[in-house]
Amino acid sequence: MAKVEVSKASAPADETIWNPWFRTFPSIGNLWAANPFDLMREMTRGLDRSWPAGDNRQGVWSPAIECRRVNGELLVTAELPGVKKEDIKVQVLDESLIVEGERKLEAKEEKEGYFRSERSYGKFWRQIPLPEGAKADNIKASMNEGMLEVKIPIGETKPNTRQIPIEQTT
Hints:
The chain is mainly beta. It is 12% helix and 38% strand.
């Protein structure tokens, strides 16, 4: 086993314990007197500055997904505007529903004197745990106007409960 040396160093008398944090966010001032919204703004700016310049977070997209029980089924709806049915894959894996795909948006505009072209790509992958009693063999998925609907039949499951009598103690 390797030896690890631990030493205790004392801070100079003019530094406080919060000083390293203040160096990261210099405009905060006194931590206890600061406005919490200013603290959040400074923290966000600091995180933005620390993010690698080459990574502009393009290609990361996560569609809005809603799960709810309706008439003995789990209904999963996903908002996928601009995504074609062929670019979506719905599968069941280890008691989870997986919805994945890619959106590809391309816009071109030609007017007198200029030409503008924009492309946007984004892959997504979402995993939704299936409840106990879900019948994975009977899952149905449909797509209509950018809305994906997945219906998963759920069998009736009774919770394993029993009443515990309360005894009187003296």
